[in-house]
Amino acid sequence: AGIVPWNFPLMLLTWKVCPALAAGNTVVLKPASYTRLSALLLAEICAEAGLPPGVFNVVTGNGAFGSSLASHPDTDKVAFTGSTEVGQLLRRSTAGTGKKLSLELGGKSPFVVFENADLDSAVEGVVDAIWFNQGQVCSAGSRLLVQESVFGRMISKIKERMSHLRVGDSLDKCIDMGAIVDPSQRRSVDNFVQKAKDEGAEVFQACSSMPEHGCFYPPTLVTNVSTVSTIVQEEVFGPVLTAMSFRTPKEGIALANNTRYGLGSSVWSENINVAMEAAISLKAGAVWINGHNMFDAAAGFGGYRESGFGRDGGKEGMYEYVRPTWEDRPRPVVDDSALAKFGGMVPSRPVNPDSSKGQVYDTVTAMSGFEVPSIDHTLKMYIGGTQKRPDGAYSRPVVAADGRVLSQVGDGNRKDIRDAVEAAHKAAPGWGKRAAHNRAQITYYMAENLELRRNEFATRISAMTGGSMKEALNEVDLSIQRLYHWSAYADKFGGTVQETTLYGTTMKIHEPVGVIGIACPEKCPLLGFVSLFAPAVVRGNTMVIIPSEKHPLVACDLYQVFDTSDLPGGVVNIVTGDRDHLSKYLVEHQDIEAMWYFGSAEGSKFIEATSAVNVKRTWVNYGFERDWTNAAQGQGEEFLYHAIECKNIWVPIGEIFAN
């Protein structure tokens, strides 16, 4: 199902339909209510071109009709472009259904001008960035950030340029800006501007011509605003530009990233070092250098944060319309009554050794000639590179397949999750900027240290799961192999150069997602853990991991492997306890960029529905187990897809051979 808005009805339609058809899918498209005719005309063209009946279908209706299309049980994939609010509704309505979802949502894109920029070119860039299509562009450069030393000159030039803008009939080739789409949208734009005035902002509006009738709105510049001003934080979707100054490049980047969106951004500087470093530092799916709003079907377009997930265009956009060859469309059966209680947990009573009930610790110790149970061994959390006691001071027993209590582990709660997320965020900047080769070295070192303790880990797995030593040794060997596999990808999946129509270079950079929450499966406690954390860590992410709830000891044994492998503290944080209880607090945390969950169908639905609050990325199994020993299922390319964000940096040229 493709659902597209009215602002670029034909272009956005083709961005959805073409890759879907190329991948072998059939499509049902729902155009916006205002722009149905272009979609219907394209359907006629497809029929004339010989496209088989039923491959491309167009249905028209209001917004509620689009929700019905997305919720239909036979819809396998939903591709949506539109507002963040509607995207959140679609995330909730498709949660737990097994449908793939890609969202290209709103934005509040920064337009960053450094003191060494060509200011005249930057002014023309502002015109293209915010007043193109009346500002009704999801990637409109609506936040102007100018270095303090040239702020006054830049504002003066913009005001002068605004006075020459012509507003009128969009079919007139002499007109710079047309009308707002409808009266309600015009009222919304004006309400934002009036609220800015009420908050103390200075509003400048000017143009050379302005019709008296119609949904026209003048080009608007808003100054004297702060980072918390409503008009700075919210998407206006109109011809309104806010302007702020910054002192240093670091401050400029911090201000640019101070938004819950992350769709597009532009950097203006004649210094290539400043421009490239700023482009890499900005959290947005597209970064244009000395330009704005450049697009090409060969380069994926999409956002970070509340600007959505998934890409339109490029190879990265094709992933949205395919599944791994081994995977069928999941159709989970969810008990909705269990969702209200999801994650609820009351700490259990302590379990002490009791031979009369067959629950004794795994080993005995000789003391003064007598054999007594070994000392109660309670393993702690692993947060910030150190072992931490659980905040609630509760522990839970780890029971072997034969009923023996092998050990105790900490029973984590909300506070432990919060501490782990803070530690992960503290480690994220340094780990993400480390040389890929160094990340590979550390992960190779983990494999070497794990191999030295091969028999110890296998014995632990066998005791917990009840499997044979042969099976346990195979799981350890596969875990070592998987560490080597992902180590090799640390410096081999950094991106590529996109072949676009731009006279210049378009670079696709594979950036870390950020802080990822991971809830591991019950089966294959070591292999499942390694298969999930390794691709994330080699691609520069930090994480909070909930190991297997029933068999967590091998994850706790990895503490020493991490410490002796030079892994920086905070990169991997492990919180033991009730998986669903901890997953609930992880997915609800606003500073988690993505959540991977491998548990129940009900848990998968809860994770996806709750993620809608800030549109975080999710990867869930819908209650279906995968074979972690199978290379296609346990180390496929989908792991890399979920571990990275695609950013396209557009670098135009033309100083020597202009045009």
Question: Which descriptors would you attach to this protein?
Answer:
659 residues, 10-stranded mixed sheet, 37% helix, 19% strand
Topology:
Blueprint: E1 2-3, H1 9-22, E2 27-30, H2 36-48, E3 56-58, H3 63-71, E4 77-81, H4 84-94, E5 100-104, E6 110-113, H5 119-131, E7 143-147, H6 148-162, H7 183-198, E8 202-205, E9 220-223, H8 230-233, E10 240-246, H9 249-256, E11 264-268, H10 272-281, E12 286-289, E13 308-309, H11 314-318, E14 364-367, E15 370-373, E16 378-379, E17 381-383, E18 386-388, E19 395-399, E20 405-410, H12 414-432, H13 436-452, H14 454-465, H15 469-488, E21 495-498, E22 504-512, E23 515-519, H16 525-538, E24 542-546, H17 553-564, E25 572-574, H18 579-588, E26 594-597, H19 601-611, E27 617-620, H20 631-634, H21 637-643, E28 644-652
Parallel strand pairs: 1-2, 1-4, 2-3, 4-5, 6-7, 6-11, 7-10, 9-10, 11-12, 12-28, 16-20, 23-24, 23-26, 24-25, 26-27
Antiparallel strand pairs: 5-13, 8-9, 14-15, 17-18, 19-20, 21-22, 22-28
Helix pairs in contact: 4-19, 5-6, 13-15, 13-17, 14-15, 15-16, 16-21, 18-19
Tell me about the largest β-sheet: 10 strands, mixed
Poorly predicted tracts of residues = 354-362
Compute the CA-based radius of gyration.
27 Å
Strand percent estimate: 15-25%
Helix content: 25-40%
Name the assembly state. single chain
**How many strands?**
28
- What would the principal axes of the Cα set say about the shape? globular
Secondary structure tally, helices: 21
> How far apart lie the N and C ends?
40 Å
Strand order, largest beta sheet:
8-9-10-7-6-11-12-28-22-21
Overall structural class, as computed from helix and strand content, comes to alpha/beta
Q: Whole-number average pLDDT? A: 93
